[in-house]
Amino acid sequence: MASEEELFASVDALLNEEPHLPPPAERARLREAAGITQARLATALKTTTQSVKNWENGRSEPKSPRLDAYQRLLKGWAAKYPAPGAAPAASVAATAPVASAEPAASRVETADAPQAPAVPAAAPARPAFRPAAASRRPATKKAAQPAADPRFPHGPLAVLDGDGCAYGVDGIVLDCPATTVPELVEWTLRESGLGAPKLNRYGKDSDPLIVLTAAAALKLGLPERLEGHEQRRSLRLPEDHPVVKQVVKAKWRLTQRGFGPWARVYRKAQGRERQCVQLAILSWDALDERSWPGVSEMEPADIARVLGVYARRVITPRGSTAVSGLELMTALRPPTRAVRDEATGNWVSAYNPGSLGTEPMDPAPPEATAEHPVVVDSGWTGGFLNEEAYQWVRSVDLLTDEECTLPFVVGLDLNTAFLAAAARLVVGLSAPDHFVGPTFNPKIPGSWLIDLSHVEVDPRLPSPFTPDGSRPTGPAWYQTHTVAYAQELGYNVEPIEAYLRRETGAYLDPWHDRLKTAYVDTLADLGVTKDLDDRAFLAAMERHKDVDPAMAAVLAAIKATVKGGIGKLRERPQGKKYKEGEQWPALQRPTWRPDIRAAVISKARINMHRKMRNMATMTGLYPLAVLSDCVVYPSPGPSPLDFLPYAASGKPQPGAFRLGPTPGLAKLEGVQTMLWAVDLMEQGHNPARHIKGGDAVLDEGE
């Protein structure tokens, strides 16, 4: 018989349990019965309207102390507004639905409509549906929304928790019975209904993604954390780890990257059917905080929402945002297409026009990096392209008295400037050819050796030809856009030699269009729309991150995808064992194209300089500093509205900086961060290496 102390301990444990809330649909009913709006409830509970929406559709649950206050309010409403047929004084409590005879692995639960009762199964091995308090699963459901592709009715991905709940998009919750990684892979491919259709008619379907929480990782036999001297994203499970042995024994394979934060488990495709599952382990830092701010700490349902929106608007994640950015290029421009062989009548694989093909391509020596085999093997000493983003500070000797008396400095940051530069950008598709003494042609992409030291630029502006803004001192290698700008300024250009490409195309166009749409649509979800005037736009941008943290995280990931994807085009060797002149893995990709990266950055830098020059002409204002895509101006007031040029009609003047949510247009930037960056530059440091989420990814990717 239990002692008194044991009984009191059990009772205390019950008292200390988290409050059980009624089902989400009941929460909404009680609020509506009380005549309270979601916005008013959010104000009372000191939270956001979106959080209240999430609680009422089952996407997330409140935490203490807000949980206790919310429960108290719901109990009070339940006493006043009992459900039809319920006793007036009955308290509201979460109840467990009746178990269904349907197999657990095939049941789907979503967020709003109640579960239809069914005849209980005889002694089920595990419950197909458990109370929300135990599993954080929404206690009510609605019919799943019709899928765009019937092969993937449950969306592109799911977040698996330790209790077997796999949270998908649109509030869907699947019951996953897997207890090992091989079982999880089999379930994902055969029963989950996860995946995404190809983005191009010649492409491939996206493999399903399973994101593992720390609890799920432990349940599957994985360590909660990967530890070592290297960066955690570079760590892998050893080949003799039990989980790796399980995978191999079940005749599954791992890629050369092994079992790390992003692991791919696959078998050779059977016909056209791919057999591949992507795994991401949250506690192994699969979601970098810089690219996915706050996502790893969210509830599984909210993580699924963030990644699901990204997957539908961009691509199903396959690694870091940099990797996803590069994968998106290939998904939208597949290297091959099916054509009919006239001799045999069979369909065969052939080059897809406009793509980069299937084979890697050596760059021209000036386009490569110093450690590249092309440079080391040839003994190249002719210099390299230096097309990088701006890091420039105006000398204090060039400041006027009037500028020094202005009370404010204002930072203008161009929205996804490098994405805007990718629009309608013609790049080379074939190998480079060498020319001596060519005539410059601004329509031919390539690298030109030319002396631009004679080009005069106002000293209050950075030189458009160098990243640090200094005037060139002699011949140097430049990308086509940089040389074309010197010609635009009215100067004669006479190339000494060049590496040019005969086959060209706007390779990045579909990549730009998809990411631009994703960026604009996500900003609109956060209240920043194209129809806002400049004042309303600045106000919306100031509060957009607080409107919906999930959508704010998607926006950050989209921006990181742009910069990281461009950086991956010139990924440098990684690891202490690398020796100069050796091949490194990135060189085996057709998408290792430093010339395309140089073209994007060159065009972005030239666009920035053109706007600064037009600003000086229209307003007489000159920048104090430029860091990448952000420029700082002295101002009579704290807002860009105090110095940007406007016509008499009130419309922004074309050609100069303009405000707006579209890529390439400007927004107000935090000046404190910029001034810190200016201080770093004056000390000879690279601020992009220090600023969180900065443009260092443009250097090497991730």
What does this structure look like?
- Mean pLDDT is 84; it is low at 87-147 and 689-697.
- It contains 21 helices and 21 strands.
- It has 702 residues and is an alpha+beta fold.
- Helices cover 32% and strands 13% of the residues.
- The longest helix is centred in the last third of the chain and has 26 residues, at 594-619.
The neighbouring-strand order within the major sheet is 1-4-3-2-5-8-7-6
Rg of Cα set: 29 Å
Major sheet size, sense and barrel closure? 8 strands, mixed
Q: How many beta-strand runs?
A: 21
- Helix/strand class: alpha+beta
Note poorly predicted spans. Answer: 87-147, 689-697
* Continuous helix count: 21
Q: Overall mean pLDDT score?
A: 84
What best-fitting shape do the alpha-carbon axes yield?
globular
Helix content: 25-40%
For the termini, the CA-CA separation is: 62 Å
Percent of sequence in beta strands:
5-15%
Keywords:
5-stranded antiparallel sheet, 32% helix, alpha+beta, 8-stranded mixed sheet, globular, 21 strands, 702 residues
Short description:
With about 700 residues, the chain is an alpha+beta fold.
Task: Detail the topology: elements first, then pairings.
Elements: H1 4-16, H2 24-33, H3 38-44, H4 49-57, H5 66-80, E1 108-109, H6 132-135, E2 157-160, E3 165-167, E4 173-175, H7 181-190, E5 209-212, H8 214-219, H9 242-249, E6 253-254, E7 262-270, E8 273-281, H10 300-313, H11 321-332, E9 336-340, E10 347-351, H12 373-378, E11 391-393, H13 401-405, E12 408-414, H14 417-422, E13 427-428, E14 433-436, E15 446-451, E16 475-479, H15 480-488, E17 497-500, E18 504-505, H16 509-525, H17 534-547, H18 549-568, H19 594-619, E19 625-627, E20 630-635, E21 666-669, H20 671-682, H21 697-700
Parallel strand pairs: 2-5, 5-8
Antiparallel strand pairs: 1-4, 2-3, 3-4, 6-7, 7-8, 9-10, 11-19, 12-20, 12-21, 13-18, 14-17, 15-16, 15-17, 19-20
Helix pairs in contact: 3-4, 10-18, 11-18, 15-19, 16-18, 17-18
